[in-house]
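Blinded run. Sample ID left blank on purpose so nobody reads anything into the name before looking at the predicted structure. Input follows.
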Amino acid sequence: MTRQSSQKLAQILITGVAALVIIPIVLVILFVIINGIGTLSWEFLTQPPRAGMTEGGIGPALLGTVLLTFGTAIAAMPLGIGAAIYLAEYAGDNRLTRAVRLAIVNLAGIPSIVYGLFGLGAFVLFLNYGTSILAGSLTLGIMTLPVVISTAEEAILAVPQRFRTVSLSLGASRWQTIRHQVLPHALPGIITGIILGLSRAAGETAPILFTVAAFYLPELPKSIFDQTMALPYHLYVIATQVPGMPLSIQYGTALVLLLLVLSLTLVATFIRTTMRRRREW
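Blinded prediction complete.
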């Protein structure tokens, strides 16, 4: 087999594997869109469920998901970025640092239900926050931390070393170099990691099942110590626990959750692409 023919065969095989991955995902998305698009309306997005959840909308669940996502960002961003800066810029290459990095990678692979049980024990029971938005946000924040730390550290390490060398040679301190040279250039990767972590948190069910999610609430939450409905758990409830639930409402709820997660992913992609175009290296 000639070099050209082997290269063409490899290209065909890679394209086929990519198609096997992409086509089922596209088909699932199209199936949800076709079955759920007719349910979407302003009333569906803003009104609470009625008649045993067989009528009405998903307003409280949608608001609860937005609040939890916002709370997750507040909980995960400062710790995640701070840890990434320390590991990339201050920590030496020793056994302890390597062990910490290995632990972060392992934490990213832990099933989400384990984080839910941890949140139940640590925040709901030990710290006595109860089943609340605060407990749910902290649990999701801890679950998101490994992703934020890993992506932020990789983005920081990708900044060329010459930027640091020139800044230090001009008399800047180490923190001034990080603040004014490293972080601005690493920002696209950091933001991308944060948003991707938040998109995962927005679609999780197991962690909020133990810490914040309610089957049904007639009123909207008034503080961070209140329970709230959330789209992932609400979708699970109406799909498995409510008899006589119209399929259109199930698919409509799934479509809203899907659009929310896809929107976060598209925002991350747009920010990364836009900011990378402005790079000087």
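Unblinding after everyone has recorded impressions. The chain has a mean pLDDT of 88.
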